[in-house]
Every structure is written in structure tokens, then in C-alpha cells.
């Protein structure tokens, strides 16, 4: 019997744990847990789960994801919508909104995994240049608001989340730069070094040719 891919099994386990009612109640008990624990966990589940999909299915999906543009764009729109406070409130009281939120985060995680390397540095920078400032602005608004933006959560919890969003937006930048530096170093090490003139024409070659030539022709023009 053929075992399922390891990535698919791990992704299903993470997703199953996050969908358990006790886990959902805990992760949705505060605004910070909702956005900083549940959201990343579902993104991770989607990213790992897509690794267990068959190659031919992935190839069919990637035809619509040239250079990772569609995946990154869809993920950015999804994250922007899910940061709206009204969506957080509705997800707690409306099962349809909750289901759409869970599905959107899992699909966004899968899209990010399929798109990130294909996008290259320029499109990665464009994606981060849109998502990170948006995250920082939302975090600032959460901190500066004098009233609750979500009816289900406390004001101090909202302000803590705002501060965390700002610091996350700042911290992602050096992490991405480290990735760029690592990729550049790997590329330079993998490229073959050009041969020097001494390596291309070793001095011992003439001597070997001289020794291997017949005695009667040594020194002949």
C-alpha cells in the first residue's frame, strides 16, 4: 500500500488540530490570538498541505500562476480583507463567514508556497512592499483608536495586537534581506569558476608531448 506524502499528512494534522472546537475557542478568545496564532497556523497548514498534492495537479495550477503573480496577489487581497475588524466580529457569530475565513487562509498558505520562489526577488519585494506597510498602518490604527474596533474584544487587547503588527512588519524586512543574501551566496557558489590560462594550458603538457613523441622526430620543426 502506497503511503500518502509526508507533507500532506502533516498539513492535515495541523489543519485538523486547528479546526477542533476547543482549539478554535482558545485561538479566537482574544484578538491577538485570533490574528497572530490562528491566522499563521492556517497559512502554515495550507502551505504544508499543498506539498502532498500530485505533481500533475500542481502543474495544472501553475499554468494560471505565471511568475507567482496570481498567488501573491490573491494572498495579499485575502490578508487585507481578513484584517478588517468587522470580518473578525462576523467570523465569531456567523458560521458561513468563519468557514470562508478558514478556507481563504488555507488557500492563501498554499498559494504563497507555490508562488514565492517562482516570483523572484522583484515580485517578492513588490508583495512585501504592499503587505507590510498595510500591516503597519493597521497596527497603528489599532493602537491609536480610543474605542474598540471589534465588539468582541477588549480595547487593551486591540492595542497589544496593534503593537505586535507593527513590530512584525518591521521584523520581516531583515528576514527577507537575509533570504536574499543567502540566495545570492548559494548562486555564486554554484557557478563554476572560469579557468585561468595556466589551468587551460598546463606547463607540463609540452613536456609530456615531447616525451611521448618518437625519438627521430624530437626537436624537428
Quick recap:
By secondary structure, this protein is an all-alpha fold. It contains 10 helices and no strands.
Account of the 3D structure:
The protein has helices at about 5-20, 20-25, 30-50, 55-60, 70-80, 85-95, 95-145, 155-190, 195-200, 205-210. The protein has about 220 residues and is mostly helical. The longest helix has about 50 residues, at about 95-145.
How is the secondary structure organized here?
Layout: H1 6-19, H2 21-27, H3 31-49, H4 55-62, H5 69-82, H6 85-93, H7 95-144, H8 155-190, H9 197-200, H10 204-212
Task: For this entry, give a set of tags.
globular; single chain; 0% strand; mainly alpha; 77% helix; 221 residues
Secondary structure class reads mainly alpha
User: What fraction of the residues are assigned to beta strands by DSSP?
Assistant: under 5%
Percent helix range: over 70%
Report the sheet with the most strands, covering strand number, pairing sense and barrel closure: none
Order of helices and strands: HHHHHHHHHH
End-to-end Cα distance, whole Å, is 74 Å
Mean pLDDT: 84
Spans with pLDDT under 50 lasting ≥5 residues?
A: none
Number of strands: 0
Task: Determine the oligomeric state from the structure.
Answer: single chain
Gross geometry = globular
Tally of alpha and pi helices = 10
Amino acid at each position: 500500500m502506497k503511503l500518502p506524502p509526508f507533507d500532506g499528512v502533516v498539513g492535515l494534522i495541523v489543519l485538523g488540530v486547528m479546526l477542533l472546537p476547543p482549539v478554535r475557542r482558545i485561538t479566537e478568545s482574544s484578538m491577538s490570538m485570533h490574528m497572530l496564532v490562528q491566522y499563521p497556523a492556517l497559512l502554515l497548514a495550507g502551505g504544508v498541505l499543498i506539498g502532498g498534492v500530485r505533481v500533475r495537479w500542481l502543474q495544472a495550477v501553475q499554468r494560471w500562476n505565471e511568475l507567482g503573480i496570481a498567488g501573491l496577489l490573491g494572498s495579499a487581497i485575502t490578508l487585507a480583507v481578513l484584517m478588517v475588524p468587522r470580518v473578525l466580529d462576523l467570523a465569531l457569530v456567523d458560521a458561513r463567514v468563519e468557514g470562508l475565513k478558514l478556507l481563504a487562509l488555507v488557500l492563501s498558505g498554499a498559494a504563497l508556497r507555490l508562488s514565492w520562489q517562482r516570483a523572484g526577488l522583484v515580485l517578492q519585494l513588490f508583495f512585501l512592499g504592499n503587505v507590510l506597510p498595510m500591516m503597519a498602518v493597521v497596527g497603528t490604527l489599532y493602537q491609536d483608536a480610543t474605542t474598540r474596533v471589534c465588539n468582541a474584544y477588549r480595547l487593551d487587547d486591540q492595542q497589544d495586537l496593534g503593537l505586535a503588527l507593527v513590530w512584525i512588519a518591521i521584523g520581516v524586512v531583515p528576514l527577507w534581506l537575509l533570504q536574499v543574501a543567502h540566495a545570492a551566496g548559494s548562486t555564486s557558489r554554484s557557478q563554476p569558476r572560469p579557468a585561468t590560462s595556466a589551468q587551460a594550458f598546463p606547463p607540463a603538457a609540452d613536456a609530456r608531448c615531447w616525451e611521448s613523441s618518437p625519438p627521430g622526430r624530437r626537436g624537428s620543426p
